[in-house]
Amino acid sequence: MPAPPDELLSQCQTVLAHAWMVRTFVKHSTEVEDFPELMGIVRAVFDLSRAVETRVGDPAEYFRMLDKKLPELRRAVEKFAIDAPHASTHTNFAQAVISIRASTEDLARLCSLGTQLTSTIKVPISITKPVPKAVFISENVKRENESPPTPASPPV
């Protein structure tokens, strides 16, 4: 049986914490001074994290936003995988590439499951305002619920 959407959302938040640690490592590394292109992964993780954090209370919206932001993260991850070895051959950078790739793959998998689950849950919509029956472009067309124009008084 699949996990409920709120549990999948919680798992996403855990994975994002790992991505955030990669972000923090890169942001505070001395190599960033000589390789500012490394900041792409920093910005992508920040952007995705901020975009979904306001939707934690609504799994359907959370997974919709995560799905929207994942392509940007994927592009940044692939660029980081190319740029990191040029910045440093240290094991920390190699591990950061592995970690951010794994985090991105996990987020994509969880997002797919969450999107499938939340799209099958139907929430009734209540309408509190009357819906207009039609919108007219032409001013010559009489609108519903509109009184006819008052004839002008004859000149005196």
Structure explained in plain terms:
By secondary structure, the protein is mostly helical. The chain has one domain (5-120). Helix content is 65%, strand content 0%. Helix 1 (5-27) packs antiparallel against helix 5 (91-120). The protein is flat, with a radius of gyration of 26 Å.
- Helical content (DSSP H or I, runs of 4+): 55-70%
Beta-strand content estimate: under 5%
Number of domains: 1
Number of strand segments: 0
- Measured on Cα atoms, how large is the radius of gyration? 26 Å
Q: Mean pLDDT, as a whole number? A: 84
Question: Which regions have little confidence, pLDDT < 50, spanning 5+ residues?
Answer: 123-145
- What profile does the largest beta sheet have? none
Please state the overall shape, judged from the principal axes of the Cα atoms.
flat
Strand/helix succession: HHHHH
